[in-house]
Specification:
The chain is α+β, with helices and mostly antiparallel strands and 428 residues long. The chain is built from 16 helices and twelve strands. Strand 8 and strand 9 form a beta hairpin.
Length: 428
């Protein structure tokens, strides 16, 4: 009794390779094979490029949130005043900050005074949100104390004011200029409250990487901000930084307990929950849409295999009469389809990875061709197109492409295997 042929024997690969090659008269690989190959390549490229940009956007936005904002903000519930207003100032802030700083996982606690003002310089004006903070705490904010993107000397922060690059651009101010800061809730007199107008030297200009931050935020020394906003001996809030921002929810209870019974906390996840949820929904929808694109591209393999089976009907009949089993015929045509899917996937991965690695150069070219108007940071919130290549995204794209390619290949391969050799040879 003859030995049973093992699956994917060398002769099966040889036959599949001969079928993949077009006739010499046709000048190379068949048109349908080329179409299938290009379709899979472009689909995988689009999937990886989109996933990389998606991951880049998420990482960039989260990084700017964590790099320029508090991980946890501690407020006071407030006390009702006789005039009907609510006093939310924290007065014993040094003791409260020390208790919070003792919580395991907390790296820094900074007292903050906040207020809205109007800045003017050279006939230009801009609204600002001023943060009163100590120079030591300002130097620990990554996105603010960044010498590569900043102008001026952060060591001179105590001598003036630090403003965002967007504010400086709007005002036309540079380091060393003196800008006027106007607050409607200023000097209290016997005749009421009059606006407070102070002039400060711009000692530092920062670029946080978020358009909305650079366009509105400024920093004053804490003592100066307390005096300017009539908050002597008190602060508006406590800015808390933690070692692991992703685990901030786990530290919330401990921080709240340390802050006291009248305290409230607001984490960065709560502050950005709407944005993060929108990103999650967009990610899921985008992956589904691009998966359909990969499926459509994989269907080209089916069309090519059906045509191949039809053209090779006589060959199938001869092979079957020579003793080739249905399984061998199925594997031959499966190899033909799978080979196209594997090569297309590999080429798509290469193109997608190159796009993610050189996205800055590619975007620079696109921006140059469009006259520099391809990216508006005031709309998109950041200054460039980010891309982050992650191994999980590449593997998911590869698994999706190969999985769909292998699945759709089975059906025309089974059709070829079940072809009756007598019927295949009857009309030859």
């Amino acid at each position: 009794m003859a030995a049973k042929t093992p699956p994917f024997a060398p002769f099966e690969w040889m036959i599949a390779w001969r079928y993949l090659r077009a006739r010499r008269a046709e000048g190379g690989v068949s048109v349908m094979t080329w179409i299938s190959l290009i379709g899979i390549t472009l689909a995988v490229f689009a999937l990886i490029a989109t996933l990389a940009v998606r991951s880049g956007f998420r990482a960039e936005f989260v990084d700017t949130i964590l790099g320029a904002n508090a991980h946890v903000t501690v407020y006071e519930m407030g006390v009702m005043q006789p005039n009907g207003s609510v006093d939310r100032k924290i007065r014993d802030y040094d003791a409260q900050a020390a208790k919070i700083a003792a919580v395991e996982g907390v790296t820094r606690v900074a007292p903050i005074v906040r207020g809205q003002v109007m800045a003017t310089f050279g006939g230009n004006s801009s609204g600002m949100e001023v943060y009163g903070i100590t120079p030591e705490n300002l130097a620990t904010i990554p996105r603010i104390a960044d010498p590569e993107t900043a102008q001026g000397d952060i060591a001179r922060f105590g001598e003036g004011i630090a403003i965002g690059s967007g504010i400086a651009r709007t005002l036309g101010a540079q380091v060393g200029d003196r800008i006027r800061v106007i607050s409607p809730d200023g000097v209290r007199t016997a005749f009421g409250t009059s606006p407070r107008v102070n002039a400060y030297e711009v000692t530092y200009i920062f670029t946080a990487g978020r358009y909305d931050i650079d366009r509105t935020r400024a920093y004053l020394p804490l003592t100066e901000a307390q005096s300017y906003f009539n908050s002597e001996g008190a602060v508006s809030e406590l800015e808390v930084m933690v070692a692991e921002p992703d685990r901030v929810d786990e530290l919330g209870t401990a921080i709240l307990s340390a802050a006291g019974d009248t305290a409230l906390i607001w984490t960065w996840r709560e502050a950005s929950s709407g944005f993060l949820n929108a990103l999650d929904i967009e990610d899921n929808v985008m992956f589904v849409i691009l998966s359909i694109l990969v499926l459509i591209a994989a269907m080209n393999i089916v069309s090519g295999l059906i045509m191949l089976v039809k053209n090779k009907g006589r060959d199938i009949g001869i092979l079957r009469t020579m003793g080739l089993s249905e399984g061998s015929v199925l594997r031959v045509f499966f190899i033909c389809g799978a080979f196209t899917g594997i090569i297309g996937t590999a080429m798509g991965v290469i193109l997608g990875c190159l796009f993610a690695l050189y996205v800055d150069q590619i975007f620079g070219l696109v921006n140059w061709l469009s006259g520099g108007n391809a990216w508006d940071p005031s709309i998109r919130g950041i200054y460039f197109l980010p891309a982050k290549l992650e191994f999980g995204d590449v593997m998911s794209a590869v698994a999706l492409s190969l999985g769909l390619s292998f699945i759709v290949t089975i059906f025309p391969a089974r059709r070829a295997a079940r072809m009756n050799p007598v019927e295949a040879l009857r009309y030859e």
